[in-house]
């Protein structure tokens, strides 16, 4: 154990582009099997405005897709 937080950035596949709500899911992460297994927390960022200009401008959703020691859910931020 390192005893320090480690932050990694991962690329998504094209899954969100094919869904009507465009929200990313944990399964959209490339190499998601190892990420799902090893990560304590997985957070995804979704900006509805990127797909529809008038959809919640200036806002984003932080999707907590995995939290080993807590709850999951979506947090709206601006």
TrEMBL record:
Q: Which GO terms describe its molecular function?
A: ATP binding; DNA helicase activity
Domain SF4 helicase, residue spans: 1-78
SUPFAM superfamilies in the record = P-loop containing nucleoside triphosphate hydrolases (SSF52540)
Please give the name of this protein. Answer: DnaB-like helicase C-terminal domain-containing protein
Ordered alphabetically, the record's keywords are: ATP-binding, Helicase, Hydrolase, Nucleotide-binding
* GO CC, alphabetical: cytosol
* Source organism: Streptococcus agalactiae
> Does Transmembrane count among this protein's keywords?
no
Provide the GO biological process annotations: DNA replication
Please give the Gene3D superfamilies that the UniProt record associates with this protein: P-loop containing nucleotide triphosphate hydrolases
